[in-house]
Automatic annotation (TrEMBL):
Name of one Pfam family that matches: Epimerase
Keyword terms of this UniProt record: Carbohydrate metabolism, Isomerase, NAD
Name by which UniProt lists this protein: UDP-glucose 4-epimerase
Cofactor(s) required for function per UniProt: NAD(+)
GN (gene name): galE
Species this protein is from: Aeromicrobium piscarium
Domain NAD-dependent epimerase/dehydratase: 3-249
EC number: 5.1.3.2
InterPro entries assigned: Epimerase_deHydtase (IPR001509), NAD(P)-bd_dom_sf (IPR036291), UDP_G4E (IPR005886)
Amino acid sequence: MAILVTGGAGYIGAHIVRAFDEAGLDSVVVDDLSSGHREFVPDDVPFIDLNITRTKKLTEALRRYDIEAVVHLAGFKYAGVSVERPLHTYQQNVQGTVSLLRAMAEHGIGTIVFSSSAAVYGTPDIALVTEDTPTAPESPYGESKLVGEWIIADQARATGLRHTSLRYFNVVGSGTPDLYDSSPHNLFPLVIRALSEGHRPKIFGADYPTPDGTCVRDYVHVADLAQAHVVAAQKLLAGESLEPVYNLGSGDGVSVRQIMTAVARATGIDFEPQVVDRRPGDPARIVASGERAARDLQWAMRHTLDEMVTSAWQAGRE
């Protein structure tokens, strides 16, 4: 028996695969390598090079493995770019989820943990987001993640599918030096790349309604996030009931400018970031409570901000 990890060659997915291995659970990875890396997948983990929107081929591929559950991360994940490419975003994220659920139903796979996003909340007007905060996504990416939650919940009502959706916030750091965030849009890899090339890192907008004018985010370490997936999958497979959604948040907000200060402290590089225009689709502030996940999924912030920055710097320079 094994757990299928869609998007398992990506930054977050690869950490989840490692976490399953550490827990003594076998996994199978499906990824089209549009943003993932083949070398992130261990040699002893079966790898399927495939876009999950190709339902027939996905169904055929799953026939070769004894899959008991799915952790679904595959999709187009860039909120700002999704504003410019809404049709592509919906095709990959909504159609992809429908395709996966069809393949799961074909093979009688009845458990799924879904990678959702804090983007479903948009820009909430409260200090701390909970799972009961109204959803109001402001980008096609956020909308596609919310629709994904709805589709999975509807399939559960129709078929008894066991499920939960984990709403991620800003995932950073590295659990091992050979796994790094290579996104061309995420803050940490952008800062690391700029410093490595001798350039000034950029801050996208310094005129937000926040204390220092830069976006405030909820940063969580990728290894902590991966562990929550392991617990969620284990509990669902054991027949335990979970909430339909959980926030994986720290409860504390850190501004982009504060991140820059932490980077300078961790690297020993003294720099003044360059302020440029805002990116479309970026909310001013989003910080969430992780209390419900702590109660049910053993969720905890086990890494400090400096540990997040240092591990990202070390992995990003490998």
